[in-house]
Amino acid sequence: MKIDLHIHTTYSDGMLSPEQIVDTAVDCGLDVIALTDHDNVLSYKVACDYLENKKINLEIIPGVEINTIYKGFEVHILGYFMDEKNSDFIEMLKFQQKARIEQTHQIIKLLAKKQGIKIRFEDIQKLVAPLGSIGRPHIARAITNSGGTVNVMDAYAKFINNNSDVYVERKTVSPHDAVEVISEAGGIPVFAHPIDVDIADDLTCELVSYGLRGIEAYHRKHSPAAVEHFSTLAEKYGLIVTGGSDFHAPSLNHGTILMGKNFVPDWVYDKLIIEKKRIDLA
Fold it and tell me: Which CATH number characterizes residue 198's domain?
């Protein structure tokens, strides 16, 4: 079985639509995927409808990736199998979306005032699927499209970082809240790519008491030593291990598709399903 439990679509900062993701997953020989867009779950139904109409043999797990900021670190919490109608879960997504929009409007004003770069909110909004999550990649692309920079990387270097005089940090829920809400919604909260967070070990210990149930040990950023470290950490706290490519777009190098390329063992899927059944019976 070939699985990839961390994939993004045009409903956040991915470059492929849910339908294109399904087709690509099939082409890559994947058996199970999870769509984990930032702060929304809109792509899941689109992908499932396409799957049903095309009669494609692929399992799609409902997922999400909640972006939080904690002690100066970007901490991302994955969630799987949540009840999307849970009121607290819905409110969390609304809060996150509102914060994204407010941040974007503030950056637009500062770009015009301090840099003379004029872009409209609509210029950014059209770069993401309807009602999808606007983020830094979309702002960077809009700046480039307006002629403010020569390319997206230049936009990031000049404007989309904490040291820029036009950048505004987004207000977010805490990782503790994200874990708790996903858990209360019947989902499985997982610490995403913990290699990015210097305080990951201590934070994992904190999050366990809020309902954390997994760690993404298998990730394209993780070396074999990192996989071993976070797998050991998972064992220490009785957590399940998950993994995925964190796919956003084909590689710039010859259009290489990285979806499903990083090794994720079969038993990761099995453990995830067992955990969901345990939650449903609790």
Answer: 3.20.20.140
